[in-house]
Design a protein that fits this description.
The strands form two sheets. This protein has a two-stranded antiparallel ribbon. The protein has a two-stranded antiparallel sheet with strand order 3-4. 33% of the residues lie in helices and 12% in strands. The chain is extended. It has four helices and four strands; from the N terminus they run ααβαβαββ. The protein is an alpha+beta fold. It has one domain. A hairpin with a 5-residue loop joins strand 3 and strand 4. This is HNH endonuclease. Keywords: Endonuclease, Hydrolase, Nuclease.
């Protein structure tokens, strides 16, 4: 949990919204049907939008997810950004920029 969001996730309003949403979804993951453990915000919370109830507490922005689907949601976006390659000596290879122009 991000430090700037801790107060929100510990709030009575979030606890009530989260619990009611999970009951409405029968505690099932909306993606795979497995037991849900997490209420995910489709529009991720940021320091700028955390005070907007239309984002933080609105059911239209919520999704019940199991741990696996939640991990895929958050980590899939980071996987592409963290690809590294190394030489045989263990030196980091800088990213190669693809040349979009063909030589004729």
């Amino acid at each position: 949990m991000k430090e700037w969001a801790e107060w929100f996730y510990k709030s009575k309003e979030w606890a009530q919204t989260r619990d009611a949403y999970m009951v409405a979804q029968h505690y099932l993951c909306e993606r795979c049907g497995e037991p849900a453990k997490i209420v995910h915000h489709k529009i991720w919370l940021t320091p700028k939008n955390i005070h907007e109830q239309s984002i933080t507490l609105c059911w239209d922005n919520l999704e019940a997810l199991c741990q696996d689907c939640h991990n895929k949601e958050h980590h899939a976006k980071n996987v592409r950004a963290k690809r590294y390659a190394f030489t045989a000596d263990g030196e980091l290879i800088p990213p190669i920029q693809k040349n979009i122009f063909r030589s004729r």
